[in-house]
């Protein structure tokens, strides 16, 4: 199939590259010409394991193309994916202006019947709106049908997830359009679930909101465990053995971050509010998440009430491992607070430092390895559970002024920290 993908952010690029890898001819379109020139050479604008290799291979085999020219991109497309951003507005709702503009562009350039696939996460009812915009803006007498096909990839394992996902959801008004999308996705070997458009849109929000709920739930349990002297990891393991609960997404920590959960939970609260329904449970989930980041700092403040001039090592800046994405990362709030309290911050992350430099407080300093970050520090805070952090030789903490480790990700066993005389505060486990 000839496919065009509009938007080469995280979702669009991974979608385009993996569709080319299973044999489709794909043109990725983006308005950022500089980015297009780099991608043409196989340089990925995001850090995602396996993505650059897959890009390079498919460019060489002539199946993957990049352009900033909409007309060129749409010329031979039988199917066009919309994968542009839907950023959060101040009130928590999703800003749909990019999606709507792309819908107009598609209609303007359309010269044949085309299936238009919405990959961007859009509020329930948006696909109907996109269909109306397209129908109103068509120049030629052609039929464009909009299909909802939400994305469930996780950053850091997106390529793996493309070929090993749990489901592909297709929401369509006609069997014909749904079947075209099913056929496109057949080579991935992932189970397909077909439904109506509104339900497909809701599946995306409900799934992210449910996962966020699991995280806030276990974080609340962890806070109670700390007060009672129980161990949240054992609690989660014991709970997870019940197949109805499942053992995934029960890792207590410093709350969820990233470009999806924080934005999508707030958007779903808005979506419900728009139809006069108060989503009380989800409001609680969001509140708990905001509280959770502060708890790590509270533990530090309890141990070191005056941070003026204290040197604090921060390990991990990205919102989770295997990504350089800093969006809604706990490190934003944590480093800002540390600097505000007069601390000297020495941060380390294996891949996110370049992105961090663009957004973190200018006073944050950066180390080139875990060892350099930790050396001579008064406390070490762990924000991201990179393997490099998990597997560090514990002797490294002996180079601190005093071995105080406050871990927001439970990277180490309690026993090993005790055996190494490290004062270790983790999440939901006894000190
Ligand atoms: C999430 C969903 O998992 C994907 O299915 C979805 O496609 C994506 O959002 C999206 O809507 O595009 P992602 O944001 O890449 O994917 O990251 P996750 O692996 O889900 O982690 C999100 C946050 O939750 C991270 O900050 C992570 O540290 C935190 N988390 C996750 C926990 O604190 N505990 C857990 O047990 C799991």
Please, what is the CATH homologous superfamily of the domain at 2-195?
NAD(P)-binding Rossmann-like Domain
SS-based class? alpha/beta
Strand residues, percent:
5-15%
Stated plainly, the CATH topology of the domain at 2-195 is called Rossmann fold
* Oligomer type: single chain
Q: Which small-molecule ligands are present, each listed once? A: uridine-5'-diphosphate-glucuronic acid
The backbone outline, from C-alpha atoms, is globular
Largest sheet: 6 strands, parallel
Q: Could you tell me the mean pLDDT?
A: 96
Helix proportion: 40-55%
What's the CATH architecture of the domain at 2-195?
3-Layer(aba) Sandwich
Strand order of the largest sheet: 3-2-1-4-5-6
Q: What is the CA-atom radius of gyration, in angstroms?
A: 23 Å
Cα distance spanning the termini = 58 Å
Q: Number of helical segments?
A: 17
CATH class of the domain at 2-195: Alpha Beta
Weakly predicted, low-confidence segments? none
Pathway: Nucleotide-sugar biosynthesis; UDP-alpha-D-glucuronate biosynthesis; UDP-alpha-D-glucuronate from UDP-alpha-D-glucose: step 1/1
EC number: 1.1.1.22
Domain UDP-glucose/GDP-mannose dehydrogenase C-terminal: 313-414
Enzyme class: oxidoreductase
